[in-house]
# Entry
Amino acid sequence: MISVRDLKLAYGKRVLFDEVNLNFTKGNCYGVIGANGAGKSTFLKILSGEIEPNKGSVSITPGERMAVLKQNQFEFDNETVLNTVLMGHKKMWDVMQKRDAIYANPDATEEDYMEASHLEAEYGEMGGYESESDAASFLSGLGIKDEMHQMLMKDIPSNMKVRVLLAQALFGNPDILLLDEPTNGLDIETISWLENFLADYENVVLVVSHDRHFLDAVCTHVADVDRQKIKIFTGNYSFWYESSQLMARQISDRNKKAEEKKKDLLEFIARFSANASKSRQATSRKKALEKLVIEEIEPSYRKYPGIIFQPLREVGNQILNVENLKLEGEGSTLFSNVTFSVNKGDKIAFVSRNPLAVTSFFNIINGLEQPDSGKFEWGSTVTTAYLPLENSDFFTKELNLMDWLRQFVPSHVTEVDEPFLRGFLGKMLFSGDDVMKKTTVLSGGEKVRCMISKMMLQSPNCIILDQPTNHLDLESIQSFNEQCTVYNGIVLLTSHDHTFMETVANRVIELTPTGIIDRLTTFDEYLADERVKALREEMYQ
# Structure
């Protein structure tokens, strides 16, 4: 168990936490959520001892071991991949090093060998003799092939380093596990493996993530970082979000009788309790929800952006035709034989084992990149708005946000005054003096919010989204997702956010080196289709 008492942390006048008191108990997984800058990652660093609070204390049950997902990819550059994982259990690793040093010493004494025998016993008690096979199993589960296990960390790709550090944190069954954005850089299959692992994990887990599907799959509780406090709520992210929205609506509905409000809340809890039975964590989550009293449900004080795409006109019958597109990458084919047409009502999720393939495809159909062969044609009625993966080219000039947005006003808009521009920026939570901020000082999330303001300004009937949740907080992701779900235009998207893909897309197209797989289906149905799985293996060979 972790106990936090009277915690306070401030940087000058900026107070992150004040009088925080919490307990994190065994068997629970806590999703730590909060707006960007609220202090989620900082809180995990306080728990791990990396940051010292101004006041208060953090204590863990004596004898329990804490593991933390490391963020420095270069820390273990001169270690092998397998040894990097083994080093996750520091005590076991130290015992092994001491023992091996004695055996390697030609001048070792009888006394040294006696110490080595004690070390052997201690090593065995900690599971040392199975440690290499256990570490290799974690690496394989996270998609790291056997031939990489003895390579040096500095010699493997950066996306693989992230997975090794995750394996290091998970190794050795730690009593307390702290994970900051563990799904970054993972593909869908590996995220699914991690979800299943954590769903069966019986110790304390705290996880910071912007992946709502992941939070829903693994969390029994939500730790909400807001207004210098942290409050723990029963249930996963979706339960927290929907219950807080329900409570906010009830508070605003002053005429509704107390008994009717209570009935609505009880029905809501019962419905989510039933849904929880489908989860791998069914028992703990369902019991927790059944014990929940309605007084524990509180409205969220968060501000959600107002993302609204209003097409100037409806798309015609011809939207986008693609014929035999092909593109070579560095020494390999990114995609070929890409032929399809976009139809009215399509919301298409694009996927590939190589994310660069989808990004390049989106750049091609937006005229930013040339294919090696093939062609595409947009219909004359289509107005597109593109959210690219990289947006740095849009922020090279030092402009305030008002003048930055003014550059992108379409020709059909005749009156462009300050209230008009403020309206679009205000929807993305740039209010008051914020609109005079210079583009050169914007954070990654602020730049994406500016890009979304630009997209709304264009009144598109087709939006193209390359990793739209990158750099956004959960509130912005939720609003973006909900708008794309109800939007009556065309959506072409790719995302690591499982929930975004599942709730928006009604068609899936996979780009492979030998052709495409095109299915009218939801994202989850596509992933579960055994025939598609077999076809994918064939087309990537």
